[in-house]
Amino acid sequence: MSGREVALRVEEIVKAFPGTEGEARAVDGISFTIEEGRFYTLLGPSGCGKTTTLRCVAGLERTDAGRIWLAGRVVSSHKPRVFVRPDERDLGMVFQSYAIWPHMTVFDNVAFPLRAMGRRRRGIPRAAIRPRVLDVLEKVQLSGYESRMASKLSGGQQQRLALARALARDPKLLLLDEPLSNLDAGLRERMRTELRRLQRTVGVTTLYVTHDQSEALSMSNRVAVMEGGRIVQEASPRDIYRRPATRFVANFVGRTNLLDARVLGGGDGGTLRLETRAGVLHAVCPEGTRQYEAASLSIRPEDVRLHVERPVSVPNVLEGRVEYRLFLGESVEYQVSVGGELLLSRQHPDVDLRRRTEVFVEFPVQHCIVVSDEHGSTAPPPADLDEDSQDGEPEGLQDARPVLGAVPPLPVLAGELPARIDEPR
Ligand code: ATP
């Protein structure tokens, strides 16, 4: 923690809905905290429980277990029973359909919640409404549009108006549920930058929900990846991408080569040696990975380096052959067979290798990451690995299975994150 106050604390919340086969837990014991001023994202595929989590925070759903604190105050608790109404939680919300009022002007859209607050005697004085509205419209770059009907705004402007309305009351927490998903691709990308700039300028703590990994990686301070109602990994965007904890995270966030492997023994500097169908590789492992254990190895395509000459004094180099290539303009993708594996390598467009070229394939050790399988249990060993090729069990590697989140920090933090190159599952 950075010494900042905690704006939102969610502890072990559960939310179940009746289904065809009895109760189904949409949210299954989720905990996280967001520090003041931070941008926190719940990322996951459709149906993983992100929106339900957000709705529990908003007070639009009542939780079946667990507790939620906003700015130090319990707003939802199962035992003892506490439930603070949504309009008393001091939140701003923008949803997928940003629900601005088309029959009102831009000014009135933003002023409406402030006037409503005034009527309930909790709001700001009447005289303060106009300057507040003008100020927040300026922040979202809609100055000059005050008297325009909201229905006459473009998609991006309507989205900014929804944000202005959510921010007008100076909320303690801003909740955003896929707010960019109705925009076309170009605008969505611009709005990403815009939204992040605005969030930083205003300094409002933000909980963001999306299934789009590019949004999550580019905007967030922290990302929690969800699967089946649970958080399977929470980390910085860079660590989520570079150090995925599970097969699911490695696959869902970006594209990766996943190799079935077995731990052979300890390598140098906290690495382990693994047997794979491609060959023996050294890799970074979570603490507690046991020898002989079946494991999965994740290597991003941009980390699979191709050489025509064998690199000297470089570890993790195996022989391979180019099977297929796909020129994509900004990069070239090569399918390379290495031992019994077909691996994807992403290269700069200047790299020009013909099919059937024999190559030396380098797998930088720090980018070979051992990940656990989806459910934290060990996968069966690959069928054609040789049982007799195992080394003696090294000290300190006796625990039963990979421990999520126990991966040491990345030694190399250079370079930009690559653009997304596939669809999430
Ligand atoms: P999406 O990105 O598609 O919105 P999500 O990750 O936000 O998905 P949720 O909307 O939270 O997922 O839904 C999680 C699960 O709970 C889903 O299986 C969904 O069908 C179920 N669910 C959500 N709301 C209800 C409800 N009111 N009644 C019954 N089931 C519900």
CATH class of the largest domain: Alpha Beta
| Percent helix range | 10-25%
Give the total of domains.
Answer: 2
What about the largest sheet?
6 strands, mixed
Q: Briefly, what is this?
A:
This protein has two domains: 6-239, Rossmann fold (3-Layer(aba) Sandwich); 240-389, RNA polymerase II/Efflux pump adaptor protein, barrel-sandwich hybrid domain (OB fold (Dihydrolipoamide Acetyltransferase, E2P)). The chain is 21% helix and 32% strand.
Describe the fold and architecture.
By secondary structure, this protein is α+β, with helices and mostly antiparallel strands. It folds into two domains: 6-239, P-loop containing nucleotide triphosphate hydrolases (Rossmann fold, 3-Layer(aba) Sandwich); 240-389, OB fold (Dihydrolipoamide Acetyltransferase, E2P), CATH 2.40.50.100. Helix content is 21%, strand content 32%. It is built from eight helices and 21 strands. The strands form four sheets. A six-stranded mixed sheet has the order 7-8-9-3-10-11, with helices on both faces. A five-stranded antiparallel sheet has the order 2-1-4-5-6. Strand 18 (332-338) and strand 19 form a beta hairpin. The chain starts with 5 loop residues before the first strand and ends in a 54-residue tail after the last strand. Mean pLDDT is 82; it is low at 375-425.
Key descriptive features of the protein:
425 residues; binds adenosine-5'-triphosphate; six-stranded mixed sheet; five-stranded antiparallel sheet; disordered C terminus; Rossmann fold; alpha+beta; 21 strands; OB fold (Dihydrolipoamide Acetyltransferase, E2P)
